[in-house]
Amino acid sequence: MFNTQPAPIATATASPSVRTLLRFFLALLTAATAWGQRSDGGDLAACAGCGLLGIIPVIIILALIALNIYLLVWVARDAKARGLDNSVLWMILVLITGVVGLIIYLLSRPKGELIACASCGNKRLQVSAKCPHCGNA
User: Fold this and answer.
1) What pLDDT was estimated at residue 107?
2) Do the Cβ atoms of 78 and 106 come closer than 8 Å?
3) Which of 25, 32, 70, 112 is most buried, by CB atoms within 10 Å?
4) What is the pLDDT of residue 10?
């Protein structure tokens, strides 16, 4: 009558560690809800359940902040590797506008394959005449 299989989590492209983390948060959310609705625990159980539910939004906000910092660092490194002098401006654009700024950057950045510089080992565009990091050809 009832399906006992857990509902699939939409993580087709997520790594196994991300899937495990999502399952952990789902289990924590379920346990907190059940704990808060217990009738025999009284006010203490309800308070603990609500406390656990209050932690989840904080964790989600911290994860979004970490993702934003990662995107800012990636944009700055990619802009520097592609020889753009204004990598800090691109970083500020992505910081202020978020995903819209990231899309603008991805559409307007110089296209081409990044290769390692023979002199310094940093990434540079294959078609560039000199490395933006060390200046060697």
Assistant:
1) 92
2) no
3) 32
4) 46
